[in-house]
Amino acid sequence: MFRHPFVGKSLTEKIIAHQRVPAPPLTASRSDVPDWVEKLYQRMLAKNPAQRPQFMGDLVAQLERSTSPSWWQKLLTALGWK
After folding, report:
1. Each residue of 3-32: pLDDT tens digit?
2. Domain annotation covers residue 32
3. Residue 42's domain spans which residues?
4. Cβ 16 vs Cβ 9: under 8 Å
5. Cα dist. 20→5, 6, 17 in Å?
6. pTM of the full predicted structure?
C-alpha cells in the first residue's frame, strides 16, 4: 500500500511539508528496506535539486551497482513483467 511521505490535514499543509520537512525514512514503516535503498530514496526526495539524481541514467546506474540479477528478476516477477 502506498503511503505519501508528507502528511498534513490540508493540501496546503502537505505542500509546505513537501517543501520543508525531510522525508521520513522508509525503515519507519518497513524494517526490511536495505540501506542502499534508503539512501537512494532520500537522495531522490532531497530538498535541494542538485542533491537528487539528475538523470534517469544516474538512477539506473545506482540500481545496477547496488543489486544482483536475482533482485531484478524478483522485482520484474513481482510486477508481473516476466
Report:
1. 778 888 999 999 999 889 988 898 888 788
2. yes
3. 26-78
4. no
5. 12, 10, 5
6. 0.68
